[in-house]
Specification:
This protein has 87 residues and is of the alpha+beta class. The chain has three helices and four strands; from the N terminus they run E-E-E-E-H-H-H. The strands form two sheets. Strands 1-2 form a two-stranded antiparallel ribbon. Strands 3-4 form a two-stranded antiparallel sheet. The longest helix is centred in the last third of the chain and has 15 residues. The radius of gyration is 14 Å and the shape is globular. The model has no long low-confidence stretch (mean pLDDT 78).
Amino acid sequence: MLCGFPFVRRSIPYTLDCHHIVFRSQGGVGEPKNLAMLCGPVTQTGTCHHAAHSERAAEIRKILQGYIEWIYKPKEVAAEFDIGEMW
């Protein structure tokens, strides 16, 4: 999730939704490199999935694409990065 919040926030249940980084309407496919799990639902204002379909869509797409590229780096390259601070 982009927000880092747990699945329940102030008694409002949230779900994890599968989000296409490049929208299907723009040629995006359902492959792991084009999918991200975001808190949802997409119809609920304040969730990451809702934001990913709002005026912040381009900004969020760039963030998600960077993260996906980092995940799929060859192991030799990924080993150079210290992700300890992220967790």
